[in-house]
């Protein structure tokens, strides 16, 4: 652990509490260089503020003079006002200039809108060239970002990426084994740009840049570039104030989250392995966009429901499952929608991959009825005890970091196939008796 690490932890405390007064502020010439559109870039007289603009001829941008393997990066930004549809203003880390085919990227993008509609902030993370797998999230803001300056920050460590607005955390992404090389790990530079993204930025390209409102001017100040340059040891460690950080982030996301790839089932039928489904976020998304994130209608006759206590579950042996991927959705959950993933490697040693990124040997599989420590089903929070199955007590789980409900379908003598469980009333999975028919002789079993 080098001396810089101690300084870095001190700055993390400042970051979590929203204070940037002790962070070193750089002038533009000390930390940055022109990137493109030099005619549309103006350094103000104090040397610590810069304006970049978009007009009919070009956008503009600048880049940090150094590259970093991790650190804290921040700027105060004031966005253009009035009609800004199709305009994107960005503050992001990237190494696409050095790694053309396998670059990393950590994005904050501001998406313009038509007059009277709010700017949206979009965050995204790429690792090792995984641009085909989008991890976008979009949020509204509690202020008009074109009225005044606000601080936007990226904290990037070996194990965590944390985005914040005015010191309030709005998103985090942790390094997990399931993410693999998709977690950014190579040295990157910090970029700031403004450009024409008419093809996608506003309502999927429905509203384009209207240059009669040009120039579109964005102003940056209070530049913070504090981190580990590419030739020093990586910084790692726990960030102070974890409980308060999570509380603030949950409060923000439950009010302002407008899109998250983790909940977009039309795009990803099963949530990517790094996703942890949260009931409050699911509710926020349903309120904002019920067509995309609302409950799906069920077709056909509703089946009779019973509890899992009618008949104990048993384990499904690896040779009883053929398919390599199983997902399940429960729109009937009272507090939100949740899904799970189960994978059976070709070796036959089955393992479950949870949204938290944890995986366990198949031999340790035991049944479970709820989906997360928060109790997505709502049973724990209302004081109703969960039932026991066999020797394992679901009221006292050994590890409580992202449980999920998963179903596998046992095969009959002629054909084996695993599949997702159908939606059920009130989130109660069917018992074996409910699912058995004389014709198929197949049964459903529940695991975590």
From TrEMBL:
Its EC number is 2.4.1.207. It comes from the Eukaryota. InterPro entries: Beta-glucanase-like, Beta-glucanase/XTH, ConA-like_dom_sf, TypeIII_avirulence_cleave, XET_C. Residues 1-18 form the signal peptide. Keywords: Glycosidase, Hydrolase, Signal, Transferase. GO terms for cellular component: apoplast. Residues 293-302 have a biased composition (Basic residues). The keyword Cytoplasm does not apply. It is an enzyme of class 2 (transferase). Residues 18-220 form the GH16 domain. It catalyses: breaks a beta-(1->4) bond in the backbone of a xyloglucan and transfers the xyloglucanyl segment on to O-4 of the non-reducing terminal glucose residue of an acceptor, which can be a xyloglucan or an oligosaccharide of xyloglucan. Residues 292-323, 413-448 are annotated as: Disordered. One of its GO terms (molecular function) is hydrolase activity, hydrolyzing O-glycosyl compounds. One of its GO terms (biological process) is glucan metabolic process. SUPFAM superfamilies: Concanavalin A-like lectins/glucanases. It holds the Pfam family Glyco_hydro_16. This is xyloglucan:xyloglucosyl transferase. It comes from Genlisea aurea.
């Amino acid at each position: 652990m080098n001396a810089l690490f101690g300084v870095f932890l001190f700055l993390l405390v400042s970051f979590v509490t929203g204070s940037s007064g002790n962070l070193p502020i750089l002038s533009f010439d000390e930390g940055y260089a022109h990137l493109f559109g030099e005619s549309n870039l103006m350094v103000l007289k104090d040397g610590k503020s810069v304006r970049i603009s978009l007009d009919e001829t070009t956008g503009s941008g600048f880049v940090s003079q150094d590259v970093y393997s991790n650190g804290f990066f921040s700027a105060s930004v004031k966005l253009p006002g009035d009609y800004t549809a199709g305009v994107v203003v960005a503050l992001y880390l990237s190494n696409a200039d050095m790694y053309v085919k396998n670059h990393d990227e950590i994005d904050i993008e501001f998406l313009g809108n038509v007059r009277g509609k709010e700017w949206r902030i979009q965050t995204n993370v790429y690792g090792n060239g995984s641009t085909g797998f989008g991890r976008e999230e979009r949020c509204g803001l509690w202020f008009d970002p074109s009225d005044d300056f606000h601080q936007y920050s990226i904290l990037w460590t070996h194990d965590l990426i944390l985005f914040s607005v005015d010191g309030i955390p709005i998103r985090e992404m942790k390094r997990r084994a399931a993410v693999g090389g998709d977690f950014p790990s190579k040295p990157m530079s910090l970029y700031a740009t403004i450009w024409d993204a008419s093809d996608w930025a506003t309502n999927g390209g429905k509203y384009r840049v209207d240059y009669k409102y040009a120039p579109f001017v964005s102003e940056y100040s209070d530049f913070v570039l504090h981190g580990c340059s590419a030739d020093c040891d990586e910084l790692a460690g726990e960030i102070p104030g974890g409980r308060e950080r999570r509380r603030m982030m949950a409060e923000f996301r439950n009010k302002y989250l407008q899109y998250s790839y983790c909940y977009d089932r039309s795009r990803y039928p099963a949530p990517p392995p790094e996703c942890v489904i949260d009931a409050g976020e699911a509710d926020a998304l349903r309120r904002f966009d019920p067509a995309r994130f609302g409950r799906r209608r069920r077709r056909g006759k509703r089946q009779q429901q019973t509890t899992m206590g009618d008949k104990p579950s048993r384990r499904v042996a690896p040779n009883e499952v053929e398919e390599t991927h199983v997902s399940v959705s429960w729109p009937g959950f009272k507090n939100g929608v949740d899904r799970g993933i189960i994978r059976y490697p070709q070796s036959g040693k089955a393992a479950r991959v949870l949204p938290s990124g944890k995986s366990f040997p198949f031999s340790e599989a035991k049944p479970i009825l709820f989906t997360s420590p928060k109790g997505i089903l709502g049973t724990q929070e209302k004081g109703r005890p969960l039932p026991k199955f066999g020797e394992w007590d679901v009221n006292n789980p050994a590890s409580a970091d992202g449980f999920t409900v998963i179903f596998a379908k046992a095969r009959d003598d002629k054909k084996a196939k695993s599949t997702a469980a159908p939606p059920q009333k009130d989130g109660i999975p069917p018992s074996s008796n409910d699912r058995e028919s004389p014709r198929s002789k197949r049964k459903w079993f529940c695991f975590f």
